[in-house]
Request: fold
Amino acid sequence: MTVEVRYFSRGGNTKKLADAVAAEVGVAARPVSEPMEGRADMVFLCASVYAGGPDKSVLAFLRQNARDIGRIAVLSTSASGRSTHGRIKAAAEDVGVAVSDDFFHCPGTWTLFHKNRPNDEDCRSAAAFARAQLG
Ligand SMILES: Cc1cc2nc3c(=O)[nH]c(=O)nc-3n(C[C@H](O)[C@H](O)[C@H](O)COP(=O)(O)O)c2cc1C
Reply:
């Protein structure tokens, strides 16, 4: 099974999760700004909450690479809002890409909130989530 780990991260929190997942599945995490170079059976899409939803570059990545993505599993962080899973699932299904119903979400540092999150335990949980997704 070919696997990619992609992320959008303004401040580094989401990249931390992406790197933990990438280490678990044995690939390098890459930003969504880089196009896919081939087909991936599973894409771990690490996309946190900004102004209530995923960054527009995440949705652009889906549209531009739909034909090369077999399935997506979503990981995210936020200060308090819900996961981006719902928005990403709707957008992905619009372009014919399946998204796992299971997703990973944890708090992410924002201003004075959630200092040092995601922490090591969050990263271990994210890695375990990814492993379980691959069966
Ligand atoms: C511009 C901006 C907008 C944000 N909007 C929200 C939001 O609407 N709801 C929320 O719960 N968190 C919000 N956050 C907090 C981020 O989701 C949180 O800090 C996340 O961990 C950022 O990940 P990153 O460091 O990978 O960019 C926002 C953060 C930034 C920088």
Observations:
- The chain has a mean pLDDT of 97.
- The first strand starts at residue 3 and ends at 8.
- The helical segments are 13-25, 56-65, 85-94, 120-133.
